[in-house]
Amino acid sequence: MLLIEAGAEAADPDIWNPAAWPLLQGRDYDWDYRTEPQAGTAGRVHRWARGRLVGGSSCLHAMGYMRGHPSDYQAWADTTGDSRWSWEGLLPVFQAIEDHPLGGDGIHGKEGPLPVYLPADEVSPVARAFIEAGASLGLPRLQGHNNGEMIGVTPNSLNIRDGRRVTVADAWLTPAVRSRPNLTILTQARVRRLKLDGNQVCSLEIVGRQGLVEAFADQVVLCAGALESPALLMRSGIGPQGKLDAAGVGCVIDMPGVGRNLQDHLLGAGNFYAARKPVPPSRLQHSESMAYMRAGTFAANGQPEIVVGCGIAPIVSECFQAPAAGTAYSLLFGITHPTSRGSIGISGAEIGDRLIIDPAYLQTGRDRELFRQALEAARAVGHRDELADWRERELLPGTLNSVAEIDDFVAQSVITHHHPCGTCRMGKDADAVVDSDLRLKALDNLFIVDASIMPSLTSGPIHAAVLAIAETFARTVAYDMV
Ligand SMILES: Cc1cc2nc3c(=O)[nH]c(=O)nc-3n(C[C@H](O)[C@H](O)[C@H](O)COP(=O)(O)OP(=O)(O)OC[C@H]3O[C@@H](n4cnc5c(N)ncnc54)[C@H](O)[C@@H]3O)c2cc1C
Fold first, then answer.
1. CA-to-CA distance for 259 and 452, rounded, in angstroms?
2. Which residues are catalytic?
3. What is the mean pLDDT of the chain?
4. In this structure, which residue's CA is closest to atom 27 in ligand 1?
5. Whose CA is nearest to atom 48 of ligand 1?
6. Terminal-to-terminal C-alpha distance of the chain
7. Binning pLDDT at 50, 70 and 90, where does residue 482 land?
8. What are the Glucose-methanol-choline oxidoreductase N-terminal domain coordinates in residue numbering (predicted)?
9. Is the CB of 470 inside a 6 Å radius of any atom of ligand 1?
10. Ligand 1 pocket, residue 90 CB under 6 Å
């Protein structure tokens, strides 16, 4: 078995320091993409971080672990016609992944490779006040976000053990696994193109330290992520004919679905408050609590529609000036199931050619309407008495007099929540790219196992869902390959 990774092994000690995660962006192991200018966000170009190292984006991410809501997965089961992708189907899979303090209760996992930590004493007093404020409005108190109930208030569950980040490479590529005689890990080696023979991938062209080499394989599992997996297919001539023609790539298999259906969560950054006394630095990872809710009510239950998060730092988009750390805090606000759909394209046939990333942020009226409600919910929480000891005054957005002014503020304040997915969507319809075994529909021996196959976003951060995709594939498809 050959594992090929474009980047190097993780080595920067900051990776394992939870509080340092925002500083990792822009370092040499971040792909550091740029989107196309976004009409829905005041014409802004958004920077998208992605990990380029063994462990991928799990080395850069914010460590929040949220399975999502059962309805999120019912949508996957419905679109594939395959109950493996339902909440009930995935429950044993999540349990196998997790080492959770509540493990063994029939819901959470115990002694799996990935720690899920429920913070207690370290939770910031600002996040505690935020949780009390949400509860005073009627949001239920939860113990983490992972038992199927998401609406409510709780500290975020984190992939941290003994105060250190645990990456997927730490969890699964253990020394025992790395020493297996049938595994070779090839780093700083980038797959440039898949070569096809009929309905098979026969070899991969790899650009690495030895220059261009070709590797032959019986089975290929593509895990390059929501941006690079569709890009690699397109560079190999698999994708929408028109886009391939425009990029100067000969079309081998016309698959209109490749690169389509791009989705991402946005967060408004933020509903922002000057503090009346110094805000102690986060002892966790700054984003300590996310409150999920229905729009327009704090009482209802079910699948979330909006989220309000508590940032123990002055978190604002580049359109605004952040005051000094310790003098302010941000309530972040967003929507959980955006209906806007974007796309990934390639600008040329070579790996150096820029990706064309168009998330089509805030293109639907529904998304803009729900964003207004999310901002309103953030302000309702932010102005509660429970936060009065911390709140000197609201700095952003201040007075907004019309829907147009609210929409302008949202457009300027939103930043990516870092959850691009959906660009090689699984499903049983003709436009889906992979089937429910994650096999590329047009080929016999190519599987895609990463965030690109998600038909739709889960309610919260998506890393847990990506791991469940990988574990399901390992148990039910890859198992039969060996
Ligand atoms: C800054 C940030 C914060 C986030 N915070 C959270 C969070 O708190 N909670 C959460 O749930 N999610 C979070 N996410 C999202 C989460 O990390 C990702 O959704 C998830 O890691 C995606 O996994 P993946 O396997 O699809 O892709 P990745 O983890 O990105 O892996 C793709 C891998 O493929 C390699 N690769 C790409 N192209 C090639 C090629 N041609 N040849 C060889 N190798 C290649 C890449 O270098 C990379 O290692 C965050 C992401 C970021 C960037």
1. 9
2. 419
3. 97
4. 225
5. 56
6. 10
7. low
8. 51-74, 225-239
9. no
10. no
